[in-house]
Structure formats: C-alpha cells, structure tokens
Design a protein that fits this description.
2 copies of one chain form a homodimer.
Chain A lengths: L20 H8 L3 E5 L2 E4 L1 H20 L2 E3 L5 E3 H7 L1 H4 L6 E3 L5 E4 L4 H8 L11 E10 L14 E11 L2 H22 L4 E5 L10 E7 L5 E6 L5 E3 L18 E4 L6 H8 L7 E8 L5 E7 L6 H8 L3 E3 L23 E6 L8 E7 L2 E6 L1 H4 L6 E2 L18 E16 L1 H5 L4 E2 L5 E2 L2 E8 H11 L17 E5 L5 H16 L4 E4 L5 H11 L3 E5 L1 H6 L1 E6 L5 E5 L3 H15 L3
Parallel strand pairs in A: 3-7, 15-17, 17-20, 25-26, 25-27
Antiparallel strand pairs in A: 1-2, 4-6, 5-6, 7-8, 8-24, 9-10, 10-21, 11-12, 11-21, 13-19, 14-15, 14-16, 18-19, 21-24, 22-23, 27-28, 28-29
C-alpha cells in the first residue's frame, strides 16, 4: 500500500488529552480517531494491527480445540434475568427498549449467550468437554474511559467459554488455556506479561488469573513475591500480619485535642502509627448504612476484599450524620453508640492494648483490649491491603514487591454459577442429571495493541513487533521523481509483494525528515531507503525500527536480504 | 475438524417457524440458533461460512483500492443530529442513554461515521479519491424480521464509503464497485444475481442499484425487460401508459347503487376496469391529512413513488371521517368537497370521458373530462406500479416481466447529502472550498449466505459452493471401529489437511443413514466414504454434494484425486 493513499494524518505534537505515550502515538500516527468518550474509529493501520492480533488469538484458540462461534451484540434482557445479572450489574451495562418495548441489553460479556447456545444440545456427558469462542464488539459503559484504547467503552474482545463434566477436567483445560495465553503474548510481541491471581468480581467462580503487562501506567496494582512464585492482583492478595501479643494494660481515656487523623494522633501521643487502631467509614450502596472498618494504623483497607466479605457494594462514607452516633475523628470500638456494622481486620489480632477513638470529641482510649472491653466476641477478617515488604502469603518471607500492570487478559474457573442459574444440565454416565462446570477466558484486542505500543516504542513512535505490525516492510523512496530511484523502489515493492510480504511504500514528494518521521510513527519493523545517492552506489539502506540494525545492501540482492531480515524478525516471536 | 466435536445438533423435522428452505436447513444443520426476534447466534459451521464470504468481500474491496477501517457500533446521537437523520429515521434505529445521560444510537449504517473519520484530514483535492470500508455488526430494529438470516435485526455488513471531487470520478468508481460486486457474487457461488435500478430511500442521492438474487421467496418485486437491458426494482420503475385520447362526451351523473369497488362498478356499467378512474386514499404520517390518488382502474399505486413525490411518509387511510367530505366508494375529482390533496396519475392523461365517483353515495359520473370539469389545471405524475406486460421505460416495448428477488447488495451515488450537512470540505485546485461527493456500497453477509443456501440446495440440505462451504471435504468413515477403515480414513484426513484442505471428519459410531443425512445438512461439496466393503476392494467412494459425480477411486491415489476434485470445484467459481 502506498502512504499517499492511506486515509489518515500524522503529526508531531501530542494532543493535550493524551496522557500516555501509546495513546499519543496512536493518535499522532493516524491509527485511531476519537468519536465519543471511550468510543473510537480505527484507520487502516489500526485495523490491520487488530486483525493480526485476532489471527494469532484465533490460531491459539483453535489449537486448544476452540470452536469459533458468534453471539449477538444485542441480547434480550430476559436472558440476563435468568442468570440474575440483569439486576446485579449496574450502569456499566447499556440497556434499551426495542420498538416492541422489549428490554434489551448490549453484551459486555457473553456467559449467558454461551449457555443459551449450548444448553439444549449438550445433554449427554459424551458431548463434553467443549470450548466455544468469539471475537466481537462489546460495549461496557465504563465510568472512567482513559488512555486511548487502554480503557474504552466499546471494544473488540475474544471471549471463550469451556464446559466440563468435572473440576479436574476444567482445571486441566484451564492450564491449556493459560499456556495458549502465554503463546498469544509471546507471538504478539508483548514482553513483560505475567499471570497473577485475581479477584473474580462479577464473573463468579473461585480460581481466576489475570495476565498483566507490567507498566508504570497500569491501573492494576500487583503484589509479587521476589522469593517464590506468588503473584497476585492486590485486590485478591491476602495481607499477613504477625499477631502482636502486646502486654495487657488498663483502659484509660486520654484528652487528645484536635487529633482527628492517625498522623496527628501518632505525633501527639508519640506512638508509631502501626501501634494505633484506625477506623475507616464506608456506606453500603444499597441502603447507605454505615460500615466501620477497624485496622492497624499503618495499613490501608482493600475495598475489594471488604466488598467480597460483605457480599455487596460499598463506597467511602460521603457524610457522617450526627444521629448515626459516629463521632468522626474519634471513632473506636469500645463504648460506641454508632449505628454501624463493625469489621475488624486481622492486623488487630493480639493488639492487647490498643489506642483507639473514645467516641467522644477530642478523646481517645489507650490500653483498650477488645476481648475485655468490646463486650462481645470479635471476628477478625482480612480486609487489609498488602504492601511493599509485606510477608508473602505463599512462602511467608517478607519479600512482597508492589508493581503496576495493565490487564491484558483474564481466565476464570466459573464453576456452575451460570449453568445452575440458567438450568443447563446433562446426563452423566449413570444417567444422573448434572450441571456442567464452566470456564471463561477473555482478551481485549485493542487494549493488547495499545499495551504493546506502550511497552515497545521510542521517542519517535511505536516499534511494532513484526507479527502485529500494520506492514512488515516500509520502502522510503527519497526523490521518487528521480527515474532510477523510482525504478528501483518500484521493483523492490513489486518483488516483496510477490513474495507475500506486506509492504508500505512511501513515494510522496516530501522532505526526507518528514518521510522518516512518518515512518517512525508507522513503526514498521524493516525499513528500506532508496535515494539518488544510494542508487549511484547501487545500494539500498536497510534498517530495523528498533535501531538494532542499519546497513547498506547491494541493490542487486536487496530483495533477498530483506526477505531474510523479515524471516529473522518473525523468528523472534516464534514459539 | 471431527463431527463428534462440533457443538450443534442436526435433525430431520423442519421447525414450525421456518417457512423457507434455507432457514429450515440452517436451523436443522446446526448453523444458527434463535435468541430473540431477528437475533441469532451462529455455531461454528455458520460462522465459517460468514468468514469465507467476508474474505471474498475483503479481497474484492481491497482490489478496488478500499481501505479497511472500523467504525463504532455505538455512536453519539449528536453525530446523527448533524446529518439530520437522528430525527428523520424512525423506530428502526435503536437508541439509549448512557450512564451520563448522553443520547446514543446503535449504528444501522455508517455514513455519518465515515464523514467523521475523514472530514478533518481530507482537506485537499490531492487527498481524493479514497474508499474506506468495514465489515461489522449492525443493528436495525426491523419490524418484520423473517426467513432466518434473510431479514434480521442484528447482522454483519460490509459497508463502504467512497469520496470524490467530481461526479465523473464517482461514476467511474461506481462502475468499478459494480464490477467488484459481480465478482463477489460469482466467487461466492450466487448464480442468479442481477443488478436493478433502485429507489434511494433514506440514504439520499439519485442513482442507486440493488443486487438481487432472483428467488420466489424474495420480498422485492422487480421489473425486467425481456427485450432490452432494463432492470428495476418495482419501487423505482416508471410506469408508461399510452395517452388514451378518448372522445369527449358530456358530463352525466348516473345512479350506480352499491358499486363501491372498481370491480362492482365495472360489472354494473359493463365497462372495462382500465376505462374507469379509481381513487385510492392515503393519510400523511405526520398530520393524518388525506391524500387521494386518482389512477386508471386497472392499475395499482406504487407507494414508494407516491412517498417520493410527496416528500413525506404516508400510509393507506385507516378510517375516513365524514367531516373530511370524502365519500368512500364514490370518490371523484369533479365537484368534490373533499378536504384532501389530489394526485393524478399519468395513466389518466387523455382519458377524456372518464367514469369516476360523483362524491355522492350511489352515484358516479360518466363523461367526466378533467380539463373541462375539474376547475383547475391538472398536474399528472407517475405513481402507478409497473405491471407484467407493461411498456419498458427504456426501449418502449411491451416486454416487462415481473420477478421476485432477495436484495443481496446495494450501491448508491450519494452526492453531497452528508458532506454538506456535516460540513466536510476540501480545497480544490484553485483553492476554492468544495464539498466532496460520496458513494456508498453495502452487502449483508448473513443474508448473502442464506440466499445462496436458498438458491443452492436439494431436499436434503444445502449444497454449498466450495468457496464458502464450512469445509471443503467431508470424510465419512463407516465403521471407524474397523481397523482398516480407521487407518485409511485417518491417513486421508491427515494428508488432506497437510495439503491445506479444510476437512470435516465423521468417525462417529452411527448408522450410515444418519451419517449421510448429517453430511447432506453440512453441505460439504466433496464427500469421501471409507467403509469396510470399500477397504476390501482397496477403494474409496468419492461424490460431489450436488450429485454431479459419484465414483470409486483407488485408495492408493485417493488423496491426489481428491485434491484434483477440490481444485476443479474452486475453478467453477474463479473469475
């Protein structure tokens, strides 16, 4: 394809709304165009990258026995009412009424559709296991679209669903799928992708993993043990703390004026934050009722774990009303009149003489002992955020490192959540009715493209791995009005195409600087420069976009040399 | 792929809701599954057919310089407000509010998105012409989904948009696109596809064509001249009638009791229907105002032409209220007090002594002469339906044949409707601002698949052309538990796959009758039967699904023979 024919504009200045490099490059390089919050159109270079990633995903899914199918984007609400998610999912699911006033939804995931497709026909154990997948458009009314294709509302996703007759079979397949995902990232040229234990969230099920591309701009926080294999999304990471078993002392109320924060109290009493008890107030989304979490003063609350423990949605308390009995800044578990559910983090175990709020303005207790002073038995739960240097929940060593990652895939062992609620059954060997066990496996195609761009770029543009690059070779003909240049460049263009190479050809009448700047934005791995000077020497200049090579080849053998280079580039990403 | 692994069920009885063969076969053969009115999921065989058609379309679009892009499914209403279609399109467009109460729509066509993608960058005449296209999911809230994939609400469509700086350039490109469409149908194996002149409807623009697959189950009615090249959708066909120039007679009121219909009147007066004047009453959708069409008694009103003439939506009058002054059954243009717009069809030209209603119960006029009796000048317009045996609007011969067709594609010369309303401009050679001229070109992928099935099947199932068949060869191993059978069938399966052939392999333990019935429903063009009896003779039985071949080949050379057959099948659909 000729650059002159490509619809799109390339330019130098990063748009103001682009806060991360991949977004800026993909706008500046003419890959995508903003239409609405979290909604983009793709130009041809962007579309080509998507198609290449899709082809890799398709191949790996087929290799593990996947059957490609297609589910609808628009589905009847009734299907989602069966699973219970029509009500349990909030405003991130787009809903509308059709012309006959039927309630419809836009698919943001397709567990319901997968069960619908299979439930009437997979009735015997001999029909199992099987996996169906699709690559299609999804819409999720994301409240905080950001980073270009990193977090959007409309996106292309590969979603796969497997069905099994035993947990063992699911677990085996889950491993195959984990491996297939590793293959996908390797082949697509995503270098720093790790899999971490994850929180299953609205998907249901117990075991799940996320594939995280490590990146400073990642929105997910990961806990990684440097001593063992433990890797977890912070949301799902257990926070181990050592029981303190401190000395029991008498309860005493002390005057602590103006000490509404842990910092202020710590300073006032000259006690380290970790020896204080902090209270954090939440409200339940459903009824605004208060929930107070008591936790060691130096720790933070992991809201996902809290949410999972409560089994419902919560948010940090917006306002604390006097009639609640909660005395903001001086909240404590002892002698409290607060109308609130009280949660005690495990970090408080053994904190036998506790500093905590006295539920009275400007007063705290010291020496509080929950077993003695709380008045009823305390249940301790794990709702603390793991932290840098914390003990690893797996090996126990204090070796937890905190990193940021972009979620580029996830896999879930769903169990029977959907087959039970939607009444999908089969007859087992003994003629007994059973619910199939499901797994589901997702990859966002656009996010993966953007993440790879984020990982693989320099100051001038993306450095696309050849396996997903919009084109494999770019020919820059400097002075295509020169007959020799045109003849040589044209012939290389033709020859490479005849050999099945995808070639981008720039024969525009622009300055070399402008042409090279555009080439950097196209990010094509192999670049061939044909110029009058080179023609005189009967050479072409060949370089790699990642700057690992820049050399001259004889014009006579250039095509063969380029084909070799292309082959070598592909080998880098072979399994 | 092995039949035993394919998710899907094949069965004998056509479901009650399937009124056409292609729908029944695609349900019975496990191609698709109903989810909601006009909304289906596709199983793997259905998905594979779609992908093959898409690949053919993509190739032909690329050959005429098309650039594949991707537009969003969900778009902001504001974009459609720019073009005016947010209000002009009715309930067939799905609309919803997102979480921030922004009005959104689901794309049913993407002219607005195409202009949005191009308008800020194609600012110079040197950027033109170009064509962008996508293959993607669309949703149209169709009031009368029917026929399986023939008419659905959610569908996969290839939609292309070209932009030009002159009408001549558009017209040239339009021809290229017309040719590309012919290629697509040929390659996909659709045999009886013709292009007809069409009505441009809500798309705007003047010249447009539809590609029609001729079929009794088609919803479109076509006027085709058997003497010249004229082919038109009836909606867009001019109806030529010869001026009558009948003798002028005096106006006379006659008593015609109980003659409320043309048939009754014709019989009562012993006058042929074609010598009477018929009145047909409509109402405007906007304000319910009446419109009366006067037309020759033997002709029908073409509502599309009437709608286009009026420039607004109309419907047949639901009820005629007395205060309208319209005397139902006795409506005539002379001495009328009707509060209605009167339209005179061209078929009335020269009908100098007309029989028409006298606007009085049980009375008609004879000898009415519009020029003399109507009281003001009459404008005659063409709103009649063309009919079998009518004069051809092109060559004039009475050679019009009426046929039915399924619309499998359409192409429009849009002009500047969208670029003007959405303010897309470029600077021409002289630095003058101009609006680009657009064309648009659509093909529904699923409908094409279903139409080909409708055209190409026998009593037992689809006969897929090899270019779009879900698989190219099916191996039926009768008694795969027989070692010899298994060994031979396995080796043919492996060898064919190594040679790049897509093979379906049935090694299930089922009766031959059941296996062949399933094979007929899969519709795979080349069938290979391996059985104990054949093994003894060291042969395999090879047949074509269309029954044009059934023969035995030596097992030793079978793979080569099958490869030859596959090649020949492909040649049938080569350009």
């Amino acid at each position: 394809m000729k650059v002159r024919n490509i619809l799109g504009e390339r330019f130098k200045e990063a748009p103001k709304d682009c806060t991360i490099e991949s977004h800026a490059f993909m706008v500046r390089g003419g890959y995508m165009r903003y239409m609405s919050n979290g909604i983009y159109s793709l130009y041809t270079p962007g579309k080509r990258i998507m198609q290449k990633i899709e082809a890799i995903i398709r191949d790996e899914m087929d290799k593990i026995g996947g059957q490609e199918v297609m589910f609808p984007v628009v589905m009847p609400a009734s299907l989602w009412e069966e699973s219970g998610r029509y009500t349990s999912i909030g405003s991130e699911m787009a809903r509308f009424e059709d012309r006959s006033k039927n309630k419809m939804v836009l698919g943001m995931t397709h567990e319901e559709a997968a069960v619908h497709l299979a439930r009437d026909i997979a009735n015997s154990y001999t029909d199992y296991p099987f996996m169906i997948y699709q690559i299609q458009t999804k819409f999720r009314d994301e409240p905080r679209a950001r980073g270009g294709l990193i977090r959007v509302r409309e996106f292309t996703m590969k979603d796969a669903y497997s069905f099994h007759t035993s947990m063992e079979d699911l677990q085996e397949y889950y491993k195959d799928c984990h491996k297939a995902y590793e293959n996908i990232y390797k082949r697509a040229g995503a270098k720093n992708v790790i899999s971490v234990k994850s929180d299953s969230g609205m998907m249901g099920g117990s075991v799940s993993h996320e594939f995280m591309l490590l990146s400073d701009i990642g929105e997910d926080t990961l806990a990684i043990c440097t001593e063992c294999d433990y890797k977890s999304n912070m949301e799902a990471a257990e926070c181990l703390t050592e029981p303190l078993n401190s000395e029991v002392k008498p309860l005493e109320k002390v005057h602590t004026p103006e000490t509404k924060t842990i910092e202020a109290l710590s300073e006032f009493l000259k006690i380290e934050e970790k020896d204080l008890c902090k209270a954090v107030v939440y409200q339940k989304n459903a009824d605004d009722k208060y929930v107070i979490v008591f936790i060691r003063g130096d720790l933070e609350v992991n809201e996902t774990k809290l949410r999972n423990y409560l089994g419902e949605e919560i948010h940090p308390a917006v306002e604390i009303f006097e009639e609640s009995g909660i005395v903001a800044g001086f909240i404590g578990p002892v002698n409290s009149n607060a109308k609130a559910e009280m949660i005690f983090d495990k970090s408080l175990i053994g904190m036998n003489n506790m500093v905590c709020g006295a539920n009275e303005v400007d007063y705290h207790y010291v020496g509080a002992n929950l077993a003695r002073d709380y008045g009823k038995e305390v249940e301790y739960v794990d709702v603390a955020k793991i932290y840098e240097g914390a003990a690893c929940p797996c090996c126990g060593k204090k070796a937890i490192k905190i990193e940021k990652g972009i979620e580029v895939g996830n896999i879930f062992q769903l169990g029977t959540k959907y087959t039970k609620s939607m009444n999908m059954t089969y007859l087992d060997k003994d003629g007994k009715q059973q619910y199939p066990i499901m797994g589901c496996y997702g990859i966002g195609v656009g996010r993966l493209a953007a993440s790879i761009c984020q990982e693989s770029h320099d100051d001038y543009g993306p450095i696309w791995p050849i396996t997903i690059a919009p084109w494999q070779v770019e020919i820059c003909a400097l002075r295509a009005d020169n007959e020799q240049v045109k003849a040589l460049a044209d012939s290389i263009y033709d020859e490479l195409q005849k050999n099945g190479v995808e070639v981008l050809y720039d024969d525009r009448d622009v300055r070399p600087g402008a042409m090279f700047a555009d080439a950097d934005l196209f990010g094509v791995p192999v670049r061939v420069v044909v110029s009058p000077k080179n023609c005189e020497k009967n050479v072409v200049e060949i370089s790699l976009r990642d700057k690992s090579l820049k050399t001259e080849f004889s014009a006579d053998t250039a095509v063969k040399d380029i084909l070799d280079l292309v082959k070598k580039e592909f080998e880098k990403y072979a399994l």
